[in-house]
Design a protein that fits this description.
alpha+beta, 7-stranded antiparallel sheet, 19 strands
Amino acid sequence: MNIKSIVPFAVVMLACLFCVFAGCTGTPGSDGTETATPTPTQSVSHTGSAVESVVDANNMFAFEIYKQLSGENSKDDNLFLSPFSISSALALTYEGAKGETADQIKSVFYFPDNIETLRSGYQEVNAGINAGDPEYDLEVANALWAEETYPFLKEYINTAKTYYSANTTNLDFINQPEESRVSINDWVAEKTNDKIEDLIPEGMIDSMTRLVITNAIYFKGTWVLQFDKNMTTEADFTTPSGETVTVEMMKRTDDDAVYGYTETDGLQVLEMPYENESGKKLSMIVLLPKENDLKAAEDALSADNFEEIENSIKSKQVKVYFPKFKLETEYLLRDILIDIGMPAAFSGSANFSGMDGTTNLFISNVVHKAFVEVNEEGTEAAAATAVVMASGMSPEKEPIPVFRADHSFIFMIQDDETGNILFIGRISNPAE
């Protein structure tokens, strides 16, 4: 009987994603443990432009992965990730997938049925992100890291370069796995302004590694309405479990404090734009429950509900109290991706023959790491998002709403032009 040689690969994000493909004899996951039955994910048929298809897919995945991570972590844990970084790296992975493996990846990430739509969509979105603006830094980068002796198909390498701007670097994983790991981590650190270091931990790259796929995204922006540092004071913040912690609370309550704002019965929504010169707008959107219960905010995390909220945002004077925070997160996504519907990619039945013409490859690990810092001047993130602020003041005389973020909330950084959610997170304890 022929024993199939299995080769794992890796994916990275920065929000960095790292996927490892390596090689071994035997079947991955055959350690006697049972694999959970995956929850099927509905396939989506997209209409409109290629950019709209990619953005819609990314945003639906953003809501799905947030809910999965929220369910697996304590309610008092902060969360932060870049869904766009994850979906970008897995789009590169999907390019080499065939059969059931490809079908499952497409379903989990809501990719369009037409591969040319996916390619042109990512090509346009990435070009827009990397177009640059004098007022903020925003960059996304993809890369392939291949075992120098392994015969990857030129078609796959060329597709990665043409549509995803992913250059391929040959490394000696077989004889120099640690040196190879350091080289990849150095690239990630450079692309994220040293905010994401040591993305790939020791031991994850070994002599059986054949391919590492990485994506890194970096954002640093300045608020249109900056906070006065002299107005920042210590204040109480209540965690979801009811604990009171002391935080540095920023404040903007003057007559010029005009933000995008709306509210529902259980939720306040604030849109804080970043400075821009090119007309490409980025914003932070904050979903603040009126009570210290994230359910109202998490209920908004669906395509229809979020679109309805965004459409109701109007420019309005708001008294804003918002905490400073800084956090770094790291997630191993293998089990989550299996649970939500793509087990084949991690198994001995994986089919990545679009990469090498064989079925020897499978994904061994998917690692995501993200960083964000919010202060009086603006935001720095190794992952990002923004929203467009509506123009014009509300004509009717109303009480000025108070947006006091002294309890847990959800936030996003979004590209206002496309609606693309670059980053999403939850702050349960800014003092951590």
